[in-house]
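Aim 2 progress update. The chain analyzed this quarter is reproduced below.
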Amino acid sequence: MSRPLERLINLLAYLVDSPSPVTSEQIRQTIPGYDDLSDSAFHKKFERDKASLRKLGFNLTLVPTDIWKVEFGYVIPDENFLSIDLTEEERSALALAVHMVRSGGWPAGAMPLLKLGGARVADPNLPVGYSLGLDSDYPALIFQAILERRVLSFSYRGHDRELCPYAMRHLRGNWYFAGAEPGEPDQVRTYRMDRAEGFKLHTKQQAFKPPKGYRAQDVLSSMPWEDPVARQALIRCHTRLAWWVKDRFPGTTAVKYGSDPDWTTLEVPYTNSGLLLDRLIDLDDMAVILEPADLRAEMIDRLKALVV
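Predicted structure tokens:
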């Protein structure tokens, strides 16, 4: 079964890239998630997806596929899209961003950039990359709940929760989502997706409305558990990975190299210990926290939990 977000993206891409109107039968045979449905189930799901695209600002329009007007197909009119006039510097910056950001582990490629007027594609051998983590089903499920305004049930750090989700965002390496418990629309809470599990969608759509004046950026621009005072961590890592740490934590400096050229000691500024530990744990035995003691102890506790 295809995920709703993936299916919507595939449908939108198919309609945008098609040089001519696309019939519903062509859509059914081409888009994963439609082809294995009965006639009735396909039409119901397709109508829901068209409504979802309309909410996102894309209006599907039926037009004749030929001059005889015997058959009709779907198009997305040009007025649904804004004209983007990028400078050379902006195209170059976008090319680098596309090269670095990966959806589900795969680079986006150069074709979208060429459609924006061409760009210098970043060197494919550069050791850069940033995964959005879309290989998980959870972002698509939360997105569907937000789009259809359905209550979401899940477990968060061992506690069962029900939430009316208002927004989600990929922020500083992690997915976050925010919303309120049913009946308390103004008490907005924020959750980190990788600390939740067992997501289930309630069946009723349009079950809630976000409070008047609510703006996602007001909640998800910064996190309440972040310490506003920067601290310094002393980290010993493999020299060939020093660039990786410096890239993710601006202001990182090499304080000494020691007698072994294969290892570098870095002074790393941080405000969010959880984020720093999340990054360093990916390096496995290629990085060791020397100071401060509380951060080192927290990392040891995490590693012990992984082997239990």
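The first strand starts at residue 61 and ends at 64. The domain at 231-307 is CATH 3.30.70 (Alpha-Beta Plaits). These observations will guide the mutagenesis experiments scheduled for the next reporting period.
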